[in-house]
Amino acid sequence: MERVTLASLDLGDAARFSAVDVRRITIAPSIHPGAHWHDGPVFGVVESGSVHFRVGDQDEVILRSGDTFFEPGNATITRFDATNEGVTFLAWFPHPTGADPELTMGEFPPQDSTTPTAPRAR
Q1: Which residues are paired to 22 by β-bridges?
Q2: For the chain, how many structural domains are there in total?
Q3: Is residue 88 part of a domain?
């Protein structure tokens, strides 16, 4: 048996969660959905293909099969755009009992120095 830590993330003062939705999401080749944000954190791993990924004004990276990502809640995901090969990924959406994870298109308001940023994987 082999266990490899792919990411270790500090969630700081994140709210308590009582449930997690796990979703397989596929974005067709060269589709660019645009900026969006979630009302809670999202954790994911790319299964196949690749995607341009950028949180706020951080450096953009290309995620490929096996790469993990973290989208902090209430932060603008400026890019999650499929490359010309498309992308399929698994995403975990933790949430409190009775609440459904939400995605909102556009930038998260307000755009100021208090907007959370994604922690770097350790």
Answers
A1: 92
A2: 1
A3: yes
Residue 39: give the domain boundaries: 19-98
The answer to whether residue 12 is domain-embedded is no
More confident residue, 114 or 56: 56
The β-bridge partners of 54 are 79
Report residue 46 as tokens: 């790319």
CATH, residue 42: 2.60.120.10
DSSP 41-61: -EEEEEEEEEEEEEETTSPPE
**CA-based angle 109:90:118, to the nearest 5?**
35
The pTM is what? 0.79
Residue 25, in any domain of the structure: yes
- The answer on pLDDT for 40 being more than 90 is no
Of residues 67, 68, 52, 70, the one with CA closest to residue 10? 70
Cα(59)–Cα(114) distance, integer angstroms: 18
Segment 91-101 shows an average pLDDT of 81
- What is the signed CA dihedral for 9, 15, 16, 20, rounded to 10 degrees? -70
